[in-house]
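Q: What does the assembled structure look like for these inputs?
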Amino acid sequence: MSTTNNTLPRWADVLLIPIINIALALLVSGLIIIAIGEDPIEAVKILLVGAFGYDEAMGYTLYYTTNFIFTGLAVSVAFHAGLFNIGGEGQAYIGGLGVGLVMLALGPILPFYLLMILGIIAAAVFGAAWAYVPAYLQVYRGSHIVITTIMFNFIASALMVYLMVNVLIAPGSMAPQSVMLADSSHLPFIHEIMNALGYEMVHTPLNISFFWALICCLLLWVYLWHSRWGYELRTVGFNEKAAGYAGINTKKVVIITMCISGALAGFVGINEIQGVHHKLLLNFTAGYGFTGIAVSLMGRNHPVGVVLASLLFGILYQGGAELAFEVPKITREMVVTIQGLVILFSGALAYMTRPWLEKIFSLFSRPASATTQEA
Amino acid sequence: MTDIESAANRTTEKKTLPVAIELRGISKSFGSVHANQDIDLCVHKSAIHGIIGENGAGKSTLMSIIYGFYEADRGEILVNGQSVRLHNSQDAIAAGIGMVHQHFMLVDTFTVLENVILGAESGGLLNQSLNHAREELTRLEREYNLKVDLDALVSDLPVGEQQRVEILKALYRGAEILILDEPTGVLTPQETDQLFEILKTLKTQGVTVLLITHKLREIMDITDEVSVMRGGRMVAHRLTQETDKETLAELMVGRKVRLELNQKPATPGNVLLKAENLTVVDDKGVTRVKGFNMELKAGEIIGIAGVSGNGQSELLQALACIQPLSQGSLQIHQHSVTPESPCNPAKARELGLGHIPEDRHQLGMVTRFSAAESSILGFHRNESINGSLLMHNSKVEKHCEALMEQFDVRPPHPQLKSANFSGGNQQKLIIAREMTQNPRILLVGQPTRGVDIGAIEFIHRQLIEMRDQGCAVLVVSVELDEIMSLSDRILVMCEGSLVGEVAGKDADERTLGLMMAGTPLDKARSGSGPGSPQQKTINERPAHQILSPETSG
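A:
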């Protein structure tokens, strides 16, 4: 008798468990806040108002969300092929470098629409190239992708420091930053568009790359579940032997998947360089690549889940910053702790509550029919 | 339900004998599936008690409950008349219950001695445990006549001896009730005989044996009593000497069965698949197939017989172009494959080679895919389901629905996860997928492993029908019955080499068994092979008989 541990209805698996996990994380956070003598309800209020309460907060929340969608999707797509890409941070960094280089070189001579497309291509190509090397090494040299992608984060970081300090630094500048990009390469901010439409909105970093993130979700969904390549990718992820049996070139699939993953992470560079900073600089990735892992885990590696999880982390980032600002006793470190708890409960301990939930569900679904039908 | 009544009567008649283990009203369900329902079972002390049933009848679940892997939802377990609660296997061991699993739970790189004490070390220091265990095991070996070299590495032992290690392990832990789950699946007929001798010795020494199997012959050969399970229920208890195969088969399936498979003689045509000096060396540098030669013709079925792990799997994978050749060549319908010009499974499929793999969970399907997704594995690039860019999921689903209808896959739900189908239905889905592509050559590995009797009959008929339509069929199976009933020619493999060929109609189990142990055909026929410590005739039966049910109507 083969048994499946698939006793939970789908909605419970997809919705209930993440909600319970977040609730648990907030509960523990609440206890910590009580322990330092603050009111947890008040803290949650400040956090939510700080994330949604006014235009500026909203803009920042969605700006963070954009980055998390890119890195979350990057981790998800690799995960579907059974690969654990921890190199989102480095791929995002190098993707940004690609955007910066192209904009620095071509910004002054090309019009906006071309530059927008070139930016996407540059971010994708540079990010993909940075992921290609670990993929190649895994497929043809047997070095594990988890190790190599981590190492490539450090290499990316060192490379950027070298380039910014020695090569790309603006002449006469003390800070390791490039010259400003030409105006034609800037992505329009959402507040600019809204203002043009007659709706007053204050300046926020939210720009149109947010829509590109949503488009990427849709494209990835189509690729994974509605194309033969996605079918091959998922086959490799679930069962490499079966993929071999089916005549799927697993090596090729691994390399292509990692390139897609790297490209998605690289898109962070569009948001940051072309969208917000308008120049090349250091550390613009700010850990988005790593948070992408938690986003992907929490979003169950599904594009829709990734969007929801990204939004949650956007709220935590923006609302958390507000919380640290408003309540002196709650420091930035405390906010990081809360974020950590959410990652812990919804990522590392994602399935902790599952057995209990299964028991509860089995109590309510007393089976009616008796036998398993055999042919 | 007269079966149960009569069973109950029998149990009352035999109340005088001491009872080793008794189950009362055991029920267990997984989600909406009742794996076990109101199971009553009474196993007498020092008896060999068989439990027989189709796959999915709930045998394994029941044994897992007795061994403490699962807890029953309801019911009571009594060991030696005392009610026990078994929360885990430690509880079961403490109650004197031991289990020999179908797949051995041994550490290959450990010696026999180390394996036996694993988890039963008597202290922090290993040497002490080892010495103690050595004494105890020597005693057990003598007492039960179980010969194993205690210092041999498990990986160096033949399968039959590994099984003995498992039995020793259980006895060392003080087992008085021994559960064996499908113990003969991996053994040669000779090894099976030896196992049965051991079980008989155990019985005379007072050990109670619970034998789970789906092979009727074994039940008839060795058990004292037999219980039949069907659809999660216990449907009958019988004294073995008072019953026969036909009755048991009928009880198992729940309808009348016929024990023969009729087939017309083969009419072989052109050679479609030809292997010359085919040699396969695996990743670890071990030569798995040595200089194998074969010609497979259109319209015939070749059966590859051999004890599991003697190169058949690798041969099958090499023929299907999954495993690269190290030497020799392969001719797939005009197309030549050599180590220098390798082929791949996708190309092989284009050449009209269908492959129903041995291991359906590892190779044949993706258990986490829906049935619809699994139904296109290997053919997922076909134009019929793909546009220029997108895959048409609705067409995939329709394709799967058609397969399910044609091959009676139940339940016919393309969106159901592949893992949630029973073994027989998974196999039918794979067979449907491969057969409906109209292959010229069909490679079949373990066509009916883990498949219930009803589906076995169906699968065998499909294979013979393919043959009659002119397809070249190659069957690899560890079930000799199956090989003998299906094959026009039988090739026997031992240690990666071809031992010899026997015409299907001339084959008998004893000869094949000796050949499987490496004895050449002429010697095997004269009956003086080195691989046969016991010359006892196992069970003389005509070759073309098999346990195969058929509806009475």
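The domain at 21-360 of chain A is CATH 1.10.3470 (ABC transporter involved in vitamin B12 uptake, BtuC).
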